[in-house]
Amino acid sequence: MKIIPVWILGLAAFVTAPARAQGADEWLYQSPLPELVVGFQREQGGTSIVERIPPGETVQDWSQMVTTQRFAGAIARGVSLDQWVNGFVSGLANACPGARTSAPLFSRHPDHREVAFRVDCPLNPATAKPETFLLRAFASAADLHVLQVAFRHVPSAAEAGWAERHLESAVLCDAASSDSPCRDTERPGR
Asked: Which of 113, 102, 79 lies closest to 163 in space, CA to CA?
């Protein structure tokens, strides 16, 4: 089992209440991933997770995984993006001794804030393998959306470049979005 969701699930206490209506029509657009299949998917009360893996692999035994999560109402209930990042990074010390994290890069947009960073875990105690992941999190007025690309090995420069391009493709959308990917694609789950 991978360690990444364990850190994120630490936020579960903040996100179990029903989502506020203002975030109900939000979704995270990302470029298509035809080379990956859905290995796991769950939605409950607007909070969701989708894990995509290469065909033939499982969510327990994978080489690469793209995870999309939505924590409905987390921001509206007072969990700031800064708090989430601090909790996430501080959880690394216990989950992966020796983990290195790049400096989180925060940015502000008219309707949301974002952060992006990379984590290198030299040896995941649960799998005895290295794990590296790059992630980008989006905080709207109501919800927290997280997109991460993980490798169960140290990625090559080409793999890390692919992950960065995929993360950069992500756009936080809502019913009023004027960004092309939001207008031109259907909301997931509809």
From this structure: 102
pTM above 0.70, yes or no: yes
Number of domains in the chain: 1
Domain assignment present for residue 83? The answer is: no
The total number of residues written for the chain in this structure: 190
pLDDT tens for each residue of 112-152: 999 999 999 999 998 999 999 999 999 998 999 999 999 99
Residues lower than pLDDT 70 in the chain:
1-24, 178-180, 183-190
Between CA 164 and CA 174 the distance in angstroms is: 23
| Domain hosting residue 21, numbered range | 4-77+97-155+176-184
